[in-house]
């Protein structure tokens, strides 16, 4: 079987290409020599005249944990759609590292390049067991023939077990994912992202519907992931944002562009931010 | 969380199936296949007055049903597993039938170079180019797989790349088989117009009407069905099978995991069309005719009913369903023929409402209950 692991080292030159076993777009390693994981420049998205994103510019650093907050309709989810290829920007450019133009790739190619996404509503494969959900997410060749002939190796099993332990879902490994509680589904989806070994994780409202204990545990998990991956977290729960933002940057989106950016304490003191949140 | 863990049926994680089926399922499958394999012998060896004698009629009827079961199994691969509802599998069935029919028409003549009868009748002078080499059975059998496979591949390539899904896809497949039917109805197409092919005499030099040849065709169909069942089982228990079910349940999620669903759909779609073509090819010599009415939309829809009745996404279900529905059809059309379509419609409604998992689902439920009582 072919489990062509693509080496995406953070300092790799762009020609350090990975070649999958089966004919697929050859993805050059991500070039992050400037310590930037994701560039959004002047992104606009228009739906029938409505501007969901309006000249949005943002940079996410390597290993950074960035929280994004903003009122409903600020364009947070649309921004994630643009990064993951679900929506094409009307104008502007979006780059992964310095060299990968995301506006030219499909969703699957973007995922293979190293961007994982958790949806707002937890989306797992409900008729597969928890174990199988993680197995499907496991980073290996995802084209037709290698998948048909794939066999689970001991190493893969160990990694899945390790992830199950991290998610505290060992007891649920053989259960159908559809039977999990809401919070457990959220965790499973995060676990599926981790199995992909992404360099950049996009998390849309990861603690929505979680109990306080689960939220607390998720904050712990994210703090562990900080530095290993770049994380972009969209969340409404301010206490949760507080507990993971620490001294890092928080971005406030409003009406499709960046309203304010800075430490949590600075942002919260910003009169413009207070105005959007409390109404004028 | 704790309430969940306490009721959890924690299954130890092992490879899901030991060599395709559980030992008990293997025994059951081989037993049933064995019984069906013996039937032609009871026809050939026992005299007509013997109580165990099986009539020629029964053998050819069952042979037909086995071909239908194979077609249903092929449809289950795309519908039950990948969630692609095809209302046009009759096209692939007919294409396989026509491909084999070309050889049978050529073989019906004493000289292989001679024009088939219908061409003489239509005052054609030459054998059309697409009939070349069809006098060779091996080539014609290759066509049985290649013709439906190619049509499915080209159609699927564009449909799946354009992300056509759900009812839109189903409607297009229905239109496709209807268009093909109109095309094959024309005499100019070169496939015998509305009469199609008939009057087969020989297959590989054997008399096509003799009981021995009939038995041979029956066994070939049974073997093909068994092979397709094992192949289908191998695919659906592989990781690819799990990806197909993921396509069915949450295609978007799969994309964001790095899979291109289009490739997986195309694979199973093409494979399904080829299996369906094989079913059609085995069907034609047993019924002695192939004509464009095999491509009529009603035929394709009937296939869907077989799968739904038996239980989709189970592989065994469609086989059971094809047998049950066709058994009913045989009985109905001989007893009160004018009511068959009403009965079929009623059956479909009842199955959809009362047995969403089909017959297999019902049996599983009963077995689970029985097991629950015992423990």
Description:
The complex is a heterodimer of chains A (280) and B (375). Chain A is an alpha/beta fold. Helices cover 33% and strands 24% of the residues of chain A. Chain A has a single domain, classed as 3-Layer(aba) Sandwich (Rossmann fold), CATH 3.40.50. Chain A has ten helices and twelve strands. In chain A, β6 and β7 (100-101) form a beta hairpin. The longest helix of chain A has 14 residues, at 154-167. The radius of gyration of chain A is 19 Å and the shape is globular. The model of chain A is unreliable at 1-26 (pLDDT under 50). Chain B is mostly helical. Chain B has one domain: ABC transporter involved in vitamin B12 uptake, BtuC (Orthogonal Bundle), CATH 1.10.3470. Chain B has a two-stranded antiparallel sheet. A two-stranded antiparallel ribbon of chain B has the order 2-3. In chain B, a hairpin with a 2-residue loop joins β2 and β3 (206-207).
What's the layout of helices and strands?
The complex is a heterodimer of chains A (280) and B (375).
Chain A: E1 17-18, E2 27-28, E3 36-47, E4 50-61, E5 65-69, H1 76-83, E6 91-96, E7 100-101, H2 107-113, E8 115-118, H3 130-137, H4 144-149, H5 154-167, H6 182-195, E9 200-204, H7 212-225, E10 230-234, H8 238-245, E11 249-254, E12 257-263, H9 264-269, H10 271-278
Helix pairs in contact in A: 3-6, 5-6
Chain B: H1 2-7, H2 23-45, H3 56-81, H4 89-107, H5 117-121, H6 137-161, H7 166-185, E1 197-198, E2 202-203, E3 206-207, H8 211-237, H9 239-249, H10 251-256, H11 261-287, E4 289-290, H12 297-310, H13 316-335, H14 340-354, H15 358-374
Antiparallel strand pairs in B: 1-4, 2-3
Helix pairs in contact in B: 2-8, 3-8, 3-11, 3-12, 3-13, 4-6, 4-11, 6-11, 8-9, 8-11, 9-11, 12-13, 12-14, 12-15, 13-15
């Amino acid at each position: 079987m072919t489990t062509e692991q693509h080496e995406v080292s953070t300092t790799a030159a762009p020609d350090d290409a990975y070649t999958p076993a089966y004919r697929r777009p050859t993805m050059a390693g991500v070039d992050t020599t400037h310590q930037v994981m994701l560039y959004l420049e002047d992104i606009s998205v228009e739906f029938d005249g409505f501007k969901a994103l309006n000249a949005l510019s943002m940079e996410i650093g390597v290993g950074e944990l960035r929280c994004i907050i903003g009122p409903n309709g600020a364009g947070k989810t649309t921004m994630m759609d643009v990064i993951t290829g679900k929506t094409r920007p009307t104008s502007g450019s979006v780059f992964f590292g310095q060299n990968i133009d995301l506006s030219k790739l499909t969703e699957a190619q973007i995922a293979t390049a190293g961007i994982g996404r958790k949806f707002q509503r937890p989306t797992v494969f409900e008729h597969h067991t928890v174990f199988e959900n993680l197995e499907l997410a496991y980073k290996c060749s995802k084209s037709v023939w290698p998948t048909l002939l794939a066999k689970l190796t001991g190493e893969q099993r160990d990694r899945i077990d390790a992830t199950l332990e991290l998610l505290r879902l060992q007891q649920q490994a053989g259960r159908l994912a559809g039977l999990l509680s809401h919070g457990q589904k959220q965790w499973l989806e995060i676990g599926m992202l981790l199995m992909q070994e992404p360099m950049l994780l996009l998390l849309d409202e990861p603690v929505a519907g979680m109990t306080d204990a689960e939220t607390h545990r998720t904050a712990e998990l994210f703090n562990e992931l900080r530095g290993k991956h770049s994380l972009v977290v969209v969340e409404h729960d301010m206490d949760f944002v507080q507990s993971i933002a620490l001294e890092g940057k928080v971005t406030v989106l409003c009406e499709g562009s960046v309203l304010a950016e800075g430490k949590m304490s600075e942002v919260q003191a910003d009169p413009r931010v207070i105005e959007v949140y409390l109404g004028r | 969380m704790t309430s969940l863990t306490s009721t959890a049926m924690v299954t130890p994680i092992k490879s899901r199936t030991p060599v395709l089926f559980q030992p008990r399922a293997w025994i059951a499958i081989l037993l049933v296949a064995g019984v069906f394999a013996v039937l032609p012998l009871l026809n050939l060896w026992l005299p007509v007055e013997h109580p165990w004698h099986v009539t020629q009629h029964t053998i050819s009827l069952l042979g037909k049903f086995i071909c239908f079961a194979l077609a249903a199994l092929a449809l289950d691969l795309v519908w039950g597993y990948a969630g692609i509802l095809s209302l046009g599998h009759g096209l692939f069935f007919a294409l396989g039938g026509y491909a084999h029919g070309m050889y049978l028409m050529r073989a019906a003549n004493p000289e292989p170079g001679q024009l088939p009868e219908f061409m003489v009748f239509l005052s054609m002078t030459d054998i059309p180019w697409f009939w070349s080499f069809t006098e060779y059975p091996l080539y014609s059998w290759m066509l049985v797989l290649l013709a439906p496979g190619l049509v499915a591949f080209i159609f699927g390539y564009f449909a799946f790349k354009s992300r056509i899904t759900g009812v839109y896809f189903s409607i297009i497949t229905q239109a496709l088989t209807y268009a093909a039917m109109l095309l094959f109805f024309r005499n100019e197409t070169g496939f015998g117009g509305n009469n199609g092919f008939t009057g087969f005499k020989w297959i590989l030099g054997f008399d096509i009407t003799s009981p021995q040849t009939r038995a041979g065709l029956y066994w070939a169909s049974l073997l093909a069905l068994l092979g397709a069942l094992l192949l289908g089982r191998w695919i659906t228990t592989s990781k690819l099978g799990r990806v197909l079910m993921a396509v069915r349940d949450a295609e978007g999620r799969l994309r964001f995991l790095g899979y291109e669903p289009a490739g997986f759909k195309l694979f199973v779609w093409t494979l399904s069309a080829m299996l369906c073509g094989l079913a059609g090819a085995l069907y034609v010599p047993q019924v002695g005719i192939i004509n464009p009415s095999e491509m009529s939309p009603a035929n394709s829809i009937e296939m869907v009913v077989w799968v739904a009745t038996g239980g989709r996404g189970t592989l065994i279900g469609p086989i059971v369903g094809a047998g049950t529905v066709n058994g009913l059809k045989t009985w109905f059309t001989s007893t009160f023929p004018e009511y068959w379509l009403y009965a079929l419609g009623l059956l479909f409604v009842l199955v959809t409402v009362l047995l969403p998992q089909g017959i297999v689902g019902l049996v599983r439920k009963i077995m689970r209950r029985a097991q629950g009582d015992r423990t």
